[in-house]
Structure formats: C-alpha cells, structure tokens
Amino acid sequence: MLRLLRYTMLAELVVVVAAIPIDAIYFPENVGLSLLTIVPDLIWLLYLFKSRRVDHVFRGHDWNVAVESIHPLKPTFSA
C-alpha cells in the first residue's frame, strides 16, 4: 500500500505541474492556487520517501519497536 500511496501522490504532483500552463493560459487567477497545492504535496512525498517511521510502520510492521527506538522513554526515578 505504501508504494501505491507514493505513486498516487507523485501522479497528483505531475498532474498539478502539468495543469499550471493550462491555468496560466485559460485561468490566470488560479495559478497561485495551483502553486500552493504543490507545496504540501512535496512535503508529504518527502516524508513518505525519507521517513524512518513510515518505513517501520508500512514495511517492518514493528511500530512498537520503532516508537522505542525513535523516541526512547525517559527513565523513571523512584524516591
């Protein structure tokens, strides 16, 4: 499912980039909105391709181990 999600979002980004010249010709007031759509898409794609957490959840299926390795619990001290 991770691969499908990544490629679906990548396809969405390609379509938005391809739509910008069309917007510039026929709907110039929408170019800014199209550009604003690109920013969150790029952020999500970077996260899905580079995140260790995404790798643990979708590939390793070891979320409990990943939580402890990425964010270790602080030791508790008893008085």
Describe the structure.
The protein is mostly helical and 79 residues long. The chain has a domain at 2-50. The chain contains four helices and no strands. Helix 1 runs antiparallel to helix 2 and helix 3 (52-60) runs antiparallel to helix 4.
Helix content: over 70%
- Percentage of residues in strands: under 5%
Over all CA atoms, what is the radius of gyration? 19 Å
Order of helices and strands: HHHH
Overall shape: elongated
Helix/strand class: mainly alpha
- The number of helical elements comes to 4
Mean pLDDT: 84
Largest sheet features: none
Poorly predicted tracts of residues? none
Number of strand segments? 0
From the N-terminal CA to the C-terminal CA, the straight-line distance is 48 Å
